[in-house]
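Archive entry: two folds, one per protein. Generate the first.
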Amino acid sequence: MSDNKYVMAALPITMIEIMWPKIEPFIQSVADIANGEITCDGVKRRALSGETLIVVICKGPDVIAANVLDIMEFDSGLRALYIPIVGGSEMDEWLDQFFLVAKAIAKDFNCTELRGLATRKGWLRRLKDMGWVEITSVIKCDVGE
């Protein structure tokens, strides 16, 4: 999908290996602040197996962002399109359009909502205007050695 300046594309499995060198830095930037919950190798493995979908945002010939989408199905039957990774540059320029694309993908997979993570409180303020609400908080306590 394009808004003249940006092109968004869901990568087929056959393109993951080819595109990985351009995608990996964006995934790594998120892994660096994800409290040890994700790794680039894990994301790549799930993308290659078809468990997850990677959507790239391009500006001309350059990949400027990579976003990861997963389907979550809860015990209740609720289906959500989960967006655990959003990494890239110029987000203020393409984020609104990306969420429109994500909503369309969610509908294609019979999901009734989008879900994601906000590692910074600033994300919550930015996303509130787009209809996002905080539904839970994750806390942790190290058990020590």
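Generate the second and append.
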Amino acid sequence: MMQPDQPPVDPSEQIRRLRARVEVIERARRRDAKYRGFGPAYTACATALIIIIFLPVYDDVAEKGRHASWSFEYGSIWDMITRDNASPISLIALLMVAGLVALLTAASFTRTIEPYGKLISITVLSAALAIMIMAKPATPRIQPDVAEGGLAGFVLLLAITALASAHTIMLEVDRRAWLASRSRRR
């Protein structure tokens, strides 16, 4: 209903505004459809990561010397944390895994189209954890071999890094194309 003190609105201006609103809504719908597959992928990665942290990361090490012999069992990250001589690096790794699972879960259930902070955080955390598995920080002089659980974790972390990186790159390419199309219209 028109207010008595306002001038009448031009119908062509109303149609132009309506078309602009429809264009924005359609663009958002197309963009959501384009990136819909990332949510289930992040959910699968979070679930797999939760399972993998219960697997042994490194193989057990045993050494026999002339006067003494010793052995060291690593087990899963939970086993490494519960030892008396646990390294603070194990706790840091567990906190990083918990943060990564939280970010993956958030990316699973929210529209992750902008800003890129969540995706960049996922990329950085997963890459840092993959490096930690291969660098074997806080292990004794004799470096243990990476166990099957560690290799599975390494591969999963690389996949998460690639997934979040690809998602970020796709979003940025899409954003730049949209900005270019807007600048051409003007």
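Annotation attached to the second fold: DSSP finds six helices and two strands in the chain. The first strand starts at residue 61 and ends at 64.
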